[in-house]
Amino acid sequence: MFHDQQREQLRAMYFTAWDKARRGAPLEPLERQLAELIERHPEYHGLLARPEASLEREFTPEGGQSNPFLHLGLHMALLEQVTTDRPPGIRALWQQLCARHGDPHAAEHAMMEVLAETLWQAQRDQCAPDERAYLAALRRLTGESTPGADL
Q1: Where among 13, 28, 57 does a domain terminate?
Q2: Within-domain flag for 149
Q3: pTM for this one?
Q4: 90: closest CA among 122, 128, 132, 120?
Q5: Is there a domain that residue 151 lies in?
Q6: Contact 115, 129 (CB under 8 A)
Q7: Most exposed residue of 6, 18, 68, 110, measured as fewest CB within 10 angstroms of its CB?
C-alpha cells in the first residue's frame, strides 16, 4: 500500500507539471524540468493529459509496454548526475556522447540504458550501485576504455 501511495504521488508530480505547462501556468523549478522532459517525449503527451487513465496503471515488459514514468525518472536522475558531476567524470562523458550523437537527448537515452542496467544489478545484488563499473560502461559508449575500471 505504501509503495502504491508513493508511486501515485510521484506520478502526480508529472501530471501536475504537464498540466501547468500546457495551461501556461507558473512552474516551480522541478516542474519546469519535468515539463521540458515531457515536451521532448510527445509519445507521452496523451497519457500525461489523462491522469485518471494512468495514475494506477501497470506498465509491464511482459505486456510489451515501457513505463513512461520510469523513463522520465531515469532522465531526471541522469540530468542530476550531469549537473552535479556525480559520479565524478560523468559530465565530461555526457559531453563526449552529446558530440558523438549530435543530440543531447539521444546521448541521454544511450546513457540511461547503462544507468538502468547499473541500478538493476545493484538491486539484484542488494548493494549500492558500482560507480566504477557504471563509468567504465559509459566510457565504452564513447569508444574509450579504462583498463581494469570494470573489474
Answers
A1: 57
A2: no
A3: 0.86
A4: 132
A5: no
A6: no
A7: 6
